[in-house]
Design goal:
The chain is an alpha/beta fold. It has two domains: about 130 residues, 2-Layer Sandwich (Nucleotidyltransferase, domain 5), CATH 3.30.420.40; about 150 residues, ATPase, nucleotide binding domain (Nucleotidyltransferase, domain 5). The chain is about 35% helix and about 20% strand. The chain has ten helices and ten strands. A hairpin with a 3-residue loop joins strand 1 and strand 2. Helix 3 crosses helix 10 and helix 6 packs across helix 8. The protein is globular. The two termini are about 35 Å apart. This is fructokinase. Its EC number is 2.7.1.4. Pfam families: ROK. Its cofactor is Mg(2+).
């Protein structure tokens, strides 16, 4: 049995796990501090699990933006991020150097999407989106079962969409103001609501413009990605479960009758909470590790025999 490790590197906390794709056997969580300290603690944790043999592969599911193209000179490094001290930080190189095994990297939301597609709420779906609404807002996209990469990776949280009429909140994103992360993330909601979102009753009318903004996001994804499933996770969605059905109920109106199949009932079965909860990211990291090991085995099999 192969021994796999995963690192979910979040803006607030880091989760390190040992197990298999679809199964977590060991788990440790700690605060994400400075880059060197955080990465070193993750490596130390994995090395501590080396009893009978070293791990076979590691998957890293990281907050972003991060360079995911292996051809890039700064592959595995954070780009410009609002988290102090992390812009330019190397994530992959120190892990690979210390552990000497295959290492795979993707965004935390792409990894969570892989986990939910393989083991959770999006099983059987070739195309899906995983959204997380918490400290930030991110979205992972799978097309034909593969995470979307291009110039970078999807940055859904920094899209701007139509605002609700009369909503004067300026937004809280340091880069874009009223992008989706600046409107819907936990810190943005705290500024928008004047208190921690968990303290605002579900029936409070202050949730109405918030539900509108989430509905705009969902309608945009339906029109641009045409996913079979949208899984919406994160602390905000978990603590305010009324928000998702409020938003889903607004999507048909926003679509304006253009997609007649997108009824409220249809969308209610298509836009769902995660099945894996807080384990989506760590389990996604283990999926990345299994893919890294598969790639290594395939590469070895295709090495020409010596003459």
């Amino acid at each position: 049995m192969h021994k796999l490790a995963g690192i979910e590197l979040g803006g607030t906390k880091t989760v390190v796990v040992l197990g298999q794709a679809g199964r977590i056997d060991e788990r440790l969580e700690f605060a994400t501090t400075e880059p060197e300290e955080t990465i070193a603690r993750a490596i130390e944790t994995i090395e501590g699990w080396r009893d009978d043999k070293p791990v076979d592969a590691v998957g890293i599911a990281s907050f972003g933006p991060i360079r995911v193209s292996r051809e890039a000179a700064d592959y595995g490094c954070l780009l410009d991020t609002p988290k102090p001290g992390w812009s330019g930080a190397a994530v992959v190189a120190p892990v690979a150097a210390a552990l000497g095994c295959p290492v795979a990297l993707d965004t935390d939301v792409n990894a969570a999407a892989l986990a939910e597609q393989r083991h959770g709420a999006a099983q059987g779906c070739d195309s899906m989106v995983y959204l997380t609404i918490g400290t930030g807002l991110g979205g992972g996209v799978l097309i034909c079962g593969e995470p979307v990469h291009g110039l970078l990776h999807p940055e859904i949280g920094h899209v701007r969409l139509r605002r609700a009429a009369g909503d004067g909140f300026e937004g809280a994103c340091a880069f874009h103001g009223d992008c989706l992360e600046g409107l819907l993330s936990g810190p943005a909601l705290a500024a928008r609501l004047g208190t921690h979102p968990s303290r605002v009753d579900a029936e409070n009318p202050m949730w109405e413009p918030v539900a509108h903004d989430l509905a705009e996001l969902l309608a945009m994804l339906v029109l641009t990605v045409a996913p079979e499933r949208i899984v919406v996770g994160g602390g905000v969605a978990q603590r305010q479960p009324q928000l998702l059905p409020m938003a889903v109920g607004r999507v048909p109106t926003l679509l304006g009758g253009y997609l007649r199949d997108c009824t409220r009932e249809k969308l209610g079965g298509m836009i769902v909470p995660p099945q894996l909860g807080d384990d989506a990211g760590p389990m996604g990291a283990l999926v990345l590790a299994s893919r890294a090991l598969e790639d290594r085995v395939a590469a070895v099999r295709h090495v020409p025999a010596a003459a």
